[in-house]
Protein 1
Amino acid sequence: MSNPVLIIGAGVAGMTAAVELADSGIKTILVERQETVGGNALDLYKAFPTDDCFYCFEGNRWRPGIRKCFYRSALTDQPNISLRMNSEIGDISGAPDQFSVKLKVGPGYVNPKKCTMCGLCLEKSEAFRLLSPQCQPQAVVYDPTKADDGAKQAEEECPTKAINLGAQPTEETVQVSDIVIATGYHEMQPVNVDEYNYGKHPNIITQLELAKIIDPIGESGGVPVRPSDGKPAKRVMMVQCVGSRDENYYPYCSKICCIFALKHANILTQERDDVKVSVVYMDIRTYDRYERYYRESRNTGVEFVRGRVSLIEPRKDDTLDITVYDSLLDKYLKFSVDLFVLSSALEPSEGTDKLIETLGIKSTSGFVGMVDPASENEVVVGDHIYACGAALGPAEVPESVTQARAVVSKILQSRK
Amino acid sequence: MDDNKSAVLICTCGKQLQLGFDFLETQVKKMDLATSVDVHDLVCQEEGLPKIAELLKASSGHLVIAACSSQKIQPRIDQYLDSKGLDSSQIQYVNIREHSAWVHKDLDEANQKSVDMIRGTLARSAKSTKRNIEQKEISTHVTVIGGGIAGVESALSLSNLGYEVSLLEITDELGGHVRSLPVVAPTGKSGKEILSSRLDMLQNDNNIIIMTKTRVKYVTGEMGNFTVHYTSEDEEERTLNTSAIVLATGFKEFKPTSMDEYRYGKNPDVITQFELSCMLSEGKLTRPSDDKPIKEVVMIQCVGSRSEDYKKDCSKLCCTFAIDNSLEIIERIPDANVRIVYMDIRVPFENEMIYKESREKGVDYIRGRVSMTWEQDGTTYVRVYDSLLDKYLETPVDLLVLSAAILPPDGITELSETLGYAIEDDGHVKELYGKLRRNETRRRGVVAAGGVTRPQFVFEAVTDAQAGALIIHNELQGGKIESVSRGAVLNADDCVGCSLCAQQCPRGVPLMIEQIEDEEADEEQKILFKATIDTLNCHSCGVCQSLCPSGATQLNFLSNDQLWSEIEATLEDAGPEYPITLCFYCEECSVSTIDIVGTRKMEYPANTRLIPVPCAGRVSIIDLLKAFEHGASTVMIAACEKDRCHIGGTGNEIAQVQVDVARDILNAIGWKGERVDMFRMFSAEPERFTNAVNEMVKRAKELGPTPVHEGTAGKWMEVTE
């Protein structure tokens, strides 16, 4: 009997790999730093290329239907998957095929198998909350910094005794045969990109922040509002390549920000009331069939300005005056906007550099790189080490899923 | 023990659910179809699971569980029962939490709704049948069509997974386009280098048979038993039996002979980007017209791509290819002057670095379009509009390179006619579901890999092929398939041979088989073809059932009888005083949307009754009309978003047709067609469901009592328009 496979990161890529491996009878340990699976997808509202929700991945072989929502994924109840939430990877030692990995497992305040989401604790204390209706495990989470008497009461009265406020973090060491890196990406916080004033004015936000604002599940019910005062945003400007294609930050192209931005531009102009959108860009990179988003946005009146933003001046009424150099007209143009949205670079998620160093594998601009470039086997990043999804570089959901399957294919091939 | 009757287990969710459980218990006890009623506090927990096992044994498999969403608890329950050796296939679930208690403030109304839905589910349970695990053995042979990088990698992966592979290539050599790429970004290796170790492995692999100069004519059969009809060099047709097929026929470069502005095909010094790759690979780089040295090179991007007249979308690879080739030209001819005319330079991720490198090495980028190409005194000239300078530029060129669009390969439309996969608007093979199921096609057992679905870089095609091999492995399971027989079962005696199921099955499962042995009937009565369905290949949507005119094909977990009796029982108390909206919801996006509405505790009117179906396409016109017959005031179907049906993309379109026809019928018989409607939803926008329900409840109120309520249904009346 071989050792199990360790999957680091339970975003779309990691979950797909875990479920496929489990279906093939291989034991997996799926480690996730956050308190819910789903990774970035949980916050992204609508997906491209299908324009429905982001919250789904494939189902199991033993459950019909071609896809399942996160909340229906029953990851805590799958026999071959051992899900470690709130956990981080420590030291890795041993040889390929028999790695020894230390896991730092965070305090398990709420037992996800016992929580039924009945809502009792949510009424007792603000320390408990439901991260998202789509969260998986389907359980509340507890924030110890908000501990109060209500929380203690909830601990006592919880019908399934799922709450343990005194839980402590633990450490354990697992023996694994293969390691799958599915650590995804992180949206750069452009605080250091001085010209955009990010972090200095509430109405200057990133695309991921915009996604949360226009999500119907959010506070404003999907109405685009200005963070400064909650009033509807009528004029939105987006600027592309913030930190990408920039020698001072990341020289690479982040690949999906144009699609991301235009998806948002189309939602704003077509599905929300009376919003005007301008996009400042260098090249619009809507590869392949994503060109549809560009066509649609031009047809619905999104304004495109090729050039760079040169000046941002906040006004007293919380609007922003923006000066843009238009390289096609060779002119400076002035705009007044309610929301200024930065398409910020996608960078490797935190800890990727350490993982690369510990495992002694290659790096591609900070992301995980393939072991043998001439093979063009992108998912094979070391001996018994694989990677999928945005851990390999900015990737969309379909790519991540295909890569996850390729990883599983490779692992099964190696075990035949 | 009466095997029509079921035990009922009601969960209070740790006594946290706002429902009158005493009322529920009393009401359900009165129901004829209930043998016992138990109210339990924690059905899904350690203390509840043994209770389920106990009840299941006592009621010989017939059990109704009224609790929270089955989407959450069913996997756990199934696993527990499986570990105890108990069959859970007949358990029926009613969601009294997300679909009732959490969304209705009025306790009495929520109670009544829960009772009605339990009654309906009991009726469904009464007619449920046990589903067995079935086994079948199939051959472990897979056919890969196309010997480019994707096909080669597919063959190697499948062989590694234990399958015998026939690799069919139409030309006389393997390697496809990659063979002729001088340099592949971002690794900088040549196509031949990337291929060589793979080709060595192929040659040494005894499980792979390579068949070059082989053309596939057509394919018959189904997953597990396909027959590939092909011709070899001698043009003689042969056949090959196989269990699954990988379609890896790559792509075709657009030949822009019809675009007069470039004079391609007329001037030999005007070539496509791939033709330039071939020249560079062969090592010869001179002017094609006269073999003179090359100095001035102009490349034009988006020739045929991003164009309303040819290909609407971006071809994705051409910018990278152009930059690769321009660097290669500068490498070989240092004083060459390369200019690239573009609209947007599209180089993903690290390919941006070679773009930068090329600019540093002197490749000149002109944002604009070429408006004209002409020859004068043996020299070729182009006229370029530079949109940044707003100026026209005329320049002589030695080589004009067109980055022509990447198009689907020849022959895939013809092959789709017998292989049954769907074709995208742009002519490529259509993926089963663009977000999560890129490798799979509509047809089960047919996987697409590489450029045949969309333009792909080499590494992407390799990944695609590896993933595709996994999909096939999942389907064939090493030749020994063992699965719960859950799906459509066809009774051949009832089949009238209409072939609707075969035409409309979203996954192409039913086959029409010629009836050779049927001799007793006289010629005119004889049915020449009848359908057959392999239940283990079925995706259990029920589209065939809703379309079948004779009831010959039915889902073994939701027969017509089952659904009709559930409709009748659910609507037992429906009447004009309390108009009911009946909602059929698919157990894919719709159940999620309705569950999320519950989790978010979004309220909607309680005079709604919900009935689950595997796919909206399962609901037939008769099902819709039955709902009215039994007293519903309005009827709706909740379905997945357009083109996002979980079962191959067409189940919800079939449902739409059923709704349209039901509406026509209602109008024709003097009811009001607006009483029936269909709504599409997904869980990121839960208000789609509440809006839909509110609309149908409003219509129920406005349209008033139905002829069934008034007792005039079925009686002759003058229809007033």
Protein 2
Amino acid sequence: MALRELPLRTAALTARDVRPVLNAVRPHSLRNASSAAAPAEVEPSSFEVPPPPPEAAQKFDPIARSKARQLKKNPLPPSRYQYRPPKYYRGPLHPHQPPPVSDPASRLFQPGPFSLPRLEQTYQSTIAADLLTLTYQHRPPGYRAPVVEQRLREWTGESPYFKNRPLRPPRGGSALRLLTPHRDFRNIPEIKKVVVHTMVPEAQEDSAHLHVAGMVVQAMTNVRVVAHRARSHVVQWGLKKDKYVAVTADVEREDTFHFLSKLIDVVLPKIKEWKGVAGTSGDGSGNISFGLTADQVAMFPEIEVNYDSYPPKMIPGCHITIHTSATNDQDAYLLLQSIGIPFYGKLKG
Amino acid sequence: MNSSIWRTALRPLQNSQFRAPAALRHPTQTPSATPATPSTSASPFSTTATLQKRKKQGPTIDPRVTNIRYHLSHPLTPRPLHFSRTRYLRHWTIHRAWMLFLRKRRWAEERDLERQYQAMRAACEHLRCMDENGMEVPKSEAGGQGPDPGTLGPRGKEVGRLYRNAMIKRGVAGSVPVEYARAQVDFPSRDGWNHEWTRN
């Protein structure tokens, strides 16, 4: 037994003696503060090239060089990268492609976000989880949802023209209703955007109404407005075709939450005897609309502090459409109720 | 609107009085080259100026409207930014970092909701397979197998009663009270009023 252990013991004794040697072989990064530093390996650099002789520096005249270059009509390229993104997108096959939207040179670049709105934080921290709890529907393991077949009808008949014809449009409308997927932690309804719309038929006689309406909507929403023409003649309403009668503002991103916060916390509580949004509102696919009268619009803080700048008779009412990612109106009602918009009457559906 | 301070910064004018640009002025408002002489008075021998019958004037434009038009038609949007190479790289780095930050935050939020979802799912599955005595039954004997959670299994109503109750969604639509939407702010304080406070 002892004979068997002999080589092991010998190895241990040898290792003890060898240890200082091993210490010396350690990599330099593990050295102690007391031990010596390794000689630094300096990369070859352009500073090692000897400087130009002083005569050359004395003779160098940048102004004369520049003038000579101007005379030769061969100036240096400008210091800035002169690139303009294309104004129109001409398709993925065009050689001239616009830069990505995140590039500041892009025409679509939007800086920001500059704030984290309270409403957005509240949604993330509280409302999303509560909506998920409220609308949870259990599916036992192994459950397989029935597959939705093609919802559009085919053309059936003897006519040879029915072959390869596009499917028939849906019954009772031009577009199919949205399908509601199973509620999941990924598809909790959220607010996508808000559209503020004002129609001012008086603008056909006097464009001042349109301009004031545009300025009011811009002040309310912090978004540049777009003016719209009347699509057709309507004699009863006094509408003439192709006259500018309306302005809209698409409020997106953080502006949405700022606008809704102002609306919910400042404007709506100040309205006297306001019942709420009609429970019949909604387009069936999760977008809810309601209207404000002119004196309610004047309660927006941006209008109120600067009320004297607007001709009071020209301040318009407006329609507000809240677009949500819900696919039906019931989920949109729940979401809007949870952010503080009250509804009155029996809710649709 | 008292904005004369920055109006001059926008359009340096000789006189401090704000005048609308020529394009925005109504043609009737422009002063004519030959001003009306005061000599057309009814009584030529009187030196007293008599009030003339007012001439037909065009529609007067509200100065507030003129002001609004002025500010609407002056786009202050700067041209797109063009960065040099170093600044572009700086912007690109910051943008990538911000995108990574957003992605991580979104991922964390989604994991949070997923955890909640799986917990609810486990709880509902437990209730579905529980009989009246709180004992677990095999999944083949539990109800709620199809799309309708109220479907009864072979053991009838005694299995999964709490599950069937939990799956009734009748009152859910439009059930959020308006008090729920109170803004999550630090005020008012929990104590409300400091009753111990005295003036020394």
